[in-house]
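Supplementary Note 2. Why include the ligand at all?

Several targets in our set were suspected to adopt different conformations when bound, so apo predictions alone were not considered sufficient. For every target with a known small-molecule partner we therefore ran a joint prediction. The input for S-adenosylmethionine is given below.
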Amino acid sequence: MNFFRIIKARISRFLNPPKNIEDEFHSKYYYSKIWANTYFMGKNVFKCPNDLWTYQEIFWDLKPDVIIECGTFKGGSAHYYAKLFDIMDLDGIVITIDVYAMPDLPKPDRIVYVSGSSISPEIFEKVKELAKGRKKVIVVLDSDHSKEHVLKEMELYHTLVSKDSYLIVEDSNLNGHPVHSGWGTGPGPMEAINEFLPNHPEFEIDKTREKFLMSFNPNGYLKKIK
Ligand SMILES: C[S@@+](CC[C@H](N)C(=O)[O-])C[C@H]1O[C@@H](n2cnc3c(N)ncnc32)[C@H](O)[C@@H]1O
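The joint prediction is reproduced in token form.
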């Protein structure tokens, strides 16, 4: 984050103070940037531990065959999902997509790296092919967090989510929910969710997955109910 973005975030926080204790803690935690300094077994994973624990609970409940992730970055979350498959003795794979190939990505045991834009039709077809035959599918969207991009990802990847599983839209806390309000990041994942849901009654927000009071994905655990 550059100097001007830090200043912008501080002014925005000053002009739009948190409304309740949960939002206050969320903001304090978020702006500390500790989430960028969070590790699982030595691998940098850009997530709030509450959400990592929620993923673990979802894995246990669903016993997925595949998790598709848009946004690999350093591979920390892909590594975490792969380890969950190991620990739970599941025969699952992680398909993870990024426009950039970072150096020193975790070794590809169970992890399939796909290089390209998540919204390109060719990449989507490739992912579909890789996931073919795998019945229980979770999708996590953690790439470009602009509304337009997230909505395109949702329209493409929701078709791969199996019944009773999840389309997880990450970082819906941006643009004032509760962080980066005012001069924030502009419409983002939350606004994409709000536009997507009325046209997709087969998905509903599963608030039970936000039980730890703070999630970086508010309203972002979308369960496929039919
Ligand atoms: C927030 S990081 C992902 C963090 C990672 N999932 C984790 O939890 O450690 C977002 C990543 O999305 C990637 N990205 C941005 N636009 C993308 C696109 N159109 N398609 C695929 N990946 C994209 C960026 O290169 C970046 O590595």
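The domain at 3-224 is CATH 3.40.50.150 (Rossmann fold). The helical segments are 3-15, 21-32, 49-62, 76-87, 121-131, 147-157, 189-196. Comparable summaries for the other entries are listed in the accompanying table.
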